């Protein structure tokens, strides 16, 4: 049975949902699954926008065959060569032997890297500004390198004013019958996963996302069709604004995220005390996370959202508590910047974590590290109230 949805009169969503994969890229937990989107344009020529992951091939082929209604497939546009989108090229060539594969020169080269298939004479390399006329539709290509791989391009359909945006504007989460963002409570149920997807998958490439947003601003876009998650046909600017903020590394909310790494609960207790004082001082949005327990992708997502960060960390074997070290490495890798950070350190032998974390933060751009560290020797003691007050006050003042 086909599972398809109409996007416009001529465009059909023929993608698939995967609710059985536990980790996207074998890294990121996806308890709500993920969708691999693919779109079929039915014009004088038929055009498929990308394929899907190998795990859902059977459903995908059924969707295409149904949507084609006995017609052949003329073009496959490969916007992105990550295997979650390109696993079915060879199968499509078997089924539709007259198929022409359209992509950037780099994408066409990557097909050969991934797959031993003969595509000689079956490809069309396109570059910035090239167009493909399919009858009544004109598809214009724009290169979007590093959003999220170097070969990526996006495609603008001039007739229906649709931007096929590749990985940009994607989110984790399977589409449970609802294809359009206006059919769901996007802010309530999806935004956290959209932020986690952005910050972890594309977060490193803010400059390139800014480049793509500039190109998009010059177009009249009525619909955004990403490769994952819902399609946008209403209130586009809401999501585009988020992308603009995330890619400029500007925090979304005046908020404090407290992330603690605690071996026996004593550093956690200090983090708790900080959270209480911040709340008493009137800071409404204060969140606490255990670095050992919460997946690093969730922490990165919260760091992208919040303006202020408290890192509370035990010293471990003279170094940084390993899960916190892992978080810091990820922050660096994903170009986290423009945040204000306060540090709580703990050490029974000698508290070194504050100094070592400072060194890591100094390697990130425009990170303001607040002067007053809260330093514990094993536990936060009754006598340290003044220190705690001063520590919290500096965060409140910085907000
Ligand atoms: Fe959804 Fe970069 O692949």
Automatic annotation (TrEMBL):
Keywords noted in UniProt: Electron transport, Transport
- Transcription regulation as UniProt keyword: no
Extract the CDD domains matched here.
flavodiiron_proteins_MBL-fold
Q: Which cofactor does it need?
A: Fe cation
- Say which domain of life the source belongs to: Bacteria
Asked if the record carries the keyword Cytoplasm, the reply is no
Q: Which InterPro entries match?
A: Flavodoxin/NO_synth, Flavodoxin_CS, Flavoprotein-like_sf, Metallo-B-lactamas, NADH_oxidoreductase_modular, ODP_dom, RibonucZ/Hydroxyglut_hydro, Rubredoxin-O_OxRdtase
Flavodoxin-like domain location is 256-396
Family label = In the N-terminal section; belongs to the zinc metallo-hydrolase group 3 family.
Protein name as it appears in the record: FprA family A-type flavoprotein
What's the source species for this entry?
Answer: Claveliimonas bilis
């Amino acid at each position: 049975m086909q599972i398809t949805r109409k996007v416009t009169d001529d465009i059909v969503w023929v993608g698939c949902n995967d609710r059985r994969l536990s980790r996207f890229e074998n890294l990121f937990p996806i308890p709500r699954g993920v969708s691999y989107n693919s779109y079929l344009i039915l014009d004088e020529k038929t055009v498929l926008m990308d394929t899907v992951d190998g795990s859902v091939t059977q459903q995908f082929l059924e969707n295409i065959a149904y949507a084609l209604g006995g017609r052949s497939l003329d073009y496959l546009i490969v916007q992105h060569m990550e295997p979650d989108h390109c696993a079915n090229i060879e199968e499509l060539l078997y089924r539709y032997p007259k198929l022409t594969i359209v992509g950037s020169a780099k994408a066409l080269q990557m097909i050969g890297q991934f797959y031993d298939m003969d595509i000689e004479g079956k490809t069309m390399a396109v570059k910035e500004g090239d167009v493909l006329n399919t009858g009544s539709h004109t598809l214009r290509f724009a290169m979007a390198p590093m959003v999220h791989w170097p070969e990526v391009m996006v495609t603008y359909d001039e007739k229906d004013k649709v931007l096929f945006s590749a990985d940009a504007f994607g989110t984790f989460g399977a589409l449970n019958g609802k294809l359009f963002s206006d059919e769901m409570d996007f802010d309530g149920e999806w935004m956290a996963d959209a932020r986690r997807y952005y910050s972890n998958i594309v977060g490193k490439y803010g400059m390139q996302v800014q480049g793509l947003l500039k190109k998009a601003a010059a177009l009249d876009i009525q619909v955004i069709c990403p490769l994952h998650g819902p399609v946008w046909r209403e209130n586009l600017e809401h999501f585009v604004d988020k992308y603009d903020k995330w890619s400029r590394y500007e925090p979304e909310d005046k908020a404090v995220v407290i992330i603690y790494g605690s071996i026996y609960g004593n550093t956690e207790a200090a983090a708790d005390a900080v959270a209480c004082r911040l709340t008493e001082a009137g800071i409404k949005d204060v969140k606490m996370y255990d670095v050992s327990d919460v997946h690093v992708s969730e922490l990165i997502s919260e760091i992208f959202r919040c303006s202020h960060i408290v890192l509370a960390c035990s010293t471990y074997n003279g170094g940084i508590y390993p899960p916190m070290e892992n978080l810091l490495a990820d922050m660096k890798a994903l170009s986290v910047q423009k945040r204000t950070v306060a540090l709580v350190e703990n050490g029974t032998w000698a508290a070194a974590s504050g100094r070592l974390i400072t060194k890591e933060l100094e390697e990130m751009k425009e990170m303001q590290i607040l002067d007053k560290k809260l330093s514990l020797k094993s536990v936060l003691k009754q006598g340290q109230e003044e220190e705690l007050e001063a520590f919290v006050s500096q965060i409140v003042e910085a907000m």
